[in-house]
Write a structure and sequence with these properties.
The structure is a single chain. This protein is α/β, with parallel strands linked by helices. It has 9 helices and 12 strands. β10 and β11 form a beta hairpin. α1 crosses α3. The chain starts with a strand and ends with a strand.
Length: 280
C-alpha cells in the first residue's frame, strides 16, 4: 500500500491530534504516502423567509461553515507538522461538501487510493456513515479506528486476525490486505462455525495455503458461535489474541441507496475495540 487517504472530521468538532498522529505513524509503518482530506461542511439555507426573520438562518449557516473551516485549518496544521516530524510523504486537500453528502464526497476521493483511514471519536458523530459510504461506494478498503480504544497499529505490526467464512467479501478483504499481512508478526485466520452453512470447519486451511505462497505465515483457527452474535464472537477472539488489527469483509444488502448491514459489520461499526479494515 503506497497511497493512503485520511479523512478529517471538521464538524461539529475537529479530528483530535491523537488520531492524526496515529494516521501518520501508520503510513510510516507501511512506507506509504498519505493524503489528508479536510472537508469543510457546506449548509444550504432552506430559503424559508420566516426562519430568516426569526433566527437569521443564513447567518447561522455561514457561522457554522466558518467554524468548520477553522477546524479544518487547525487539523491541517497539525497534520503538516507531523509529516515533517516523522519524515513521511504526504499532503492535505481542503474541500467542501454538504453534511448529507459527506460520505459520497470522501468515497470519490478514496477510489484512487489503496486505503482510506476514518477515525471514529464519538459514538454519535457522522464518521460511521462516512465509513459505510466508502465501504460500499469506493471499491477500496476502509480502515476504522478509535484513538484510545481501538488504536491504529504503528511500528511493528503484531497479531492480525483475518475473519474468514468463504464468502466473496472475505476473499476481497484478504486480497486487499495482503500488503499489511506481510508486515504482521502473526496472522490468524478465524472461522466462526455453526453460525452459517457456508462457514464450514476446515476451510481456513486453504487460506493458509494461499497466504503461504505470498510469503505470509498464518495459522487457521475455528471457534464455535456458542450462542453469541457473530460480531461478538469475532470481537472476543480478537481481544483474546491481543490483535492489533482485524480484517474482514463488510456485508450489506442494497435497498435503493440504503444498505442493510450484516450482523458482524453492524457490530464492528458500533463501538470497535480493535482497529478494523473492511472490504466489500
Amino acid at each position: 500500500m503506497k497511497d493512503i487517504l485520511f479523512h478529517f472530521d471538521s464538524y461539529p468538532d475537529p479530528t483530535p491530534v491523537e488520531a492524526i498522529d496515529q494516521a501518520v505513524h501508520f503510513a510510516s509503518m507501511l512506507g506509504a504516502e498519505i493524503t489528508a482530506l479536510a472537508v469543510q461542511v457546506h449548509f444550504k439555507p432552506s430559503g424559508n423567509w420566516l426562519a430568516e426573520r426569526l433566527i437569521n438562518l443564513s447567518g447561522l449557516c455561514a457561522h457554522e461553515e466558518e467554524k468548520s473551516l477553522a477546524n479544518c485549518r487547525v487539523a491541517i496544521a497539525a497534520f503538516t507538522d507531523r509529516l515533517a516530524t516523522e519524515n513521511v510523504k504526504g499532503k492535505a486537500l481542503l474541500t467542501k461538501a454538504e453534511p448529507a453528502l459527506m460520505g459520497d464526497h470522501v468515497s470519490v476521493h478514496a477510489r484512487t487510493r489503496d486505503l482510506c483511514l476514518v477515525p471514529l471519536v464519538d459514538s454519535l458523530d457522522g464518521q460511521r456513515s462516512v465509513v459505510e459510504a466508502v465501504l460500499f461506494g469506493s471499491g477500496r478498503p476502509v480502515l476504522l479506528y478509535r484513538p484510545g480504544a481501538a488504536d491504529l497499529p504503528s511500528g511493528e505490526l503484531g497479531s492480525v486476525v483475518l475473519a474468514w467464512d468463504g464468502s466473496r467479501c472475505a476473499a476481497r478483504a484478504m486480497c486487499d490486505a495482503l500488503p499489511i499481512l506481510r508486515k504482521a508478526r502473526e496472522v490468524r485466520v478465524l472461522t466462526v462455525v455453526k453460525e452459517k452453512p457456508e462457514a464450514t470447519a476446515g476451510q481456513g486451511a486453504d487460506v493458509v495455503r494461499h497466504l503461504s505462497l505470498h510469503g505470509i505465515n498464518a495459522v487457521a483457527d475455528e471457534v464455535d458461535i456458542a450462542g453469541r452474535k457473530i460480531g461478538q464472537a469475532i470481537s472476543d477472539f480478537a481481544k483474546a489474541h491481543h490483535a492489533k488489527l482485524l480484517i474482514m469483509g463488510g456485508y450489506g444488502r442494497s435497498k435503493v441507496r440504503e444498505f442493510i448491514l450484516g450482523g458482524a459489520t453492524q457490530h464492528m461499526l458500533h463501538e470497535p475495540d480493535v482497529a478494523i479494515m473492511l472490504s466489500h
